[in-house]
Amino acid sequence: MRTRTLHVVAALVAGLLALSLAGCGEDAADSEGFTVGLLLPNRVTPRWELSDKPLIEKRLKELCDDCTMMYANAENDASRQREQMTSMITNGAEILILDPADSKALRSSIQEARRSGVPVIAYDRLAEGAISGFVSFDGAKVGKLQGEALLKAMADRGEGSTVVMMNGDPSSANAAWFRKGAMSVLQGRADIARSYETIGWSPENAHANMSAAISALGADRISGVLAANDAIAAGVISAFKKAGVEEIPPVTGQDADLEAVRRIVQGEQYMTVYKPFEKEAAAAAAMAVALGRGEDARDVSTTATDSPTHKDIPSILLTPTPVTAGEIESTVVNAGVFTVDQICTPRLRADCAAIGLTG
Asked: How many other C-beta atoms can be found within 10 angstroms of the C-beta atom of residue 29?
């Protein structure tokens, strides 16, 4: 990954990306509209439908009020997503924002889009092929935050350093990115007893894998679990509960899903990683509008990324934030993601009070 000089919009990332797309040469209200296709990978991860889709649509409208958006969800099926891409291009999409269901399998479709004159922005997950831009969070940083938090939690608990790695779906470039970041801090400081790939990022698959680890190792020998995201963490925790484990070892997560935040309040999940989706959505919309108006994606990028097939892809990589029980209020509550009332259901009020989360 290579960082280069910021071209035009330092404010793009700095202030909730509330930009007017300097250099585009016209106000959004005066511009000729075009159609942006948004393709998201699944419904297993709550953020895609609940956060990313409405946020991208909202920001797109703010930047280009004559623009329209097509939407499709691949339901974890790369073949379906290829068909969705073809359909969008056939029906007039001029820009595609793609979160690939499979980072490699969509390569030929991206090449076809390029031949049709339709730029593709890889969103959240890097895709192979001739993409025109990439918007995400720094995946290595995400993994490092998870690894550092897990080491601290295990040290505080004082019950060993045996870790089970519950990685993401191998078809996603992010899974390897997160794991590499985590291993950069765990290597030599933790004993990785088992490592699993979680197909589809599915809680059910995570539950099955964690049950296998518990059976093989014994629950009392597992000091912590590096779970790549909150859906996987949910499956891990359910496996411990099914095994009758009362004191669940530290479990990491990612995405700051509402249920994950509640699990942190209860002490079932140790941490998650908060990624301000509004900033990511705003960055993707900004890049799409710039490309739709004939501008270079480098005019709104802040760095460059290399994929397995292409070098120097114009990119915006945002900064993630760790969230443990003591940081819920300063992160997701203060950012307006969730209210205290949403988090602290009647069943959780005593737990919330215990960590000072009272609104």
From this structure: 8
Q: Which residue has the tokens 């290597």?
A: 187
Calculate what percentage of the chain has a pLDDT beyond 70: 91
Burial annotation 299-310 (CB, 10 A radius, 16+ → b, else e) = bbbbbbbebeee
Q: What's the rounded Cα separation, in Å, for the pair 134 and 121?
A: 6
Grade residue 159 by pLDDT with cuts at 50, 70 and 90.
confident
Q: 201 near 231, Cβ under 8 Å?
A: yes
Element (H, E) at 336: none
Q: Which two tokens stand for residue 291?
A: 């490309």
Sheet containing strand 162-167, edge to edge, reads 191-197, 162-167, 224-227
| 208-248 pLDDT per residue, tens | 999 999 999 999 999 999 999 999 999 999 999 999 999 99
Spatial neighbors of 90 by CB under 8 A, at least 6 apart, are none
Please name which of 80, 74, 67, 59 lies closest in space to residue 31, comparing C-alpha atoms: 67
* Span 321-344, pLDDT tens digits: 999 999 999 999 999 999 999 999
Torsion of CA 219, 223, 228, 233, to 10 degrees: 50
Q: How far is residue 16's CA from residue 302's CA, in Å, rounded to a whole number?
A: 14
pTM of full prediction above 0.70 = yes
List CB contacts of 261: < 8 A, sequence separation 6 or more: 272, 323, 328, 332, 338, 343
Residues in contact with 333: Cβ distance below 8 Å, sequence separation at least 6, in sequence order: 339, 340, 343, 357
- Euclidean distance between CA atoms 16 and 279, whole angstroms: 5
Q: List pLDDT tens digits, range 279-330.
A: 999 999 999 999 999 999 999 999 999 999 999 999 999 999 999 999 999 9
- Element of type H or E holding 110: helix 107-115
The answer for residues whose C-beta is within 8 angstroms of residue 105's C-beta and 6 or more apart is: 78, 79, 82, 171
The three-state secondary structure class of 166 is strand
Question: What DSSP letter does each residue of 6-24 carry, written as one string?
Answer: --S-HHHHHTTT----TTS
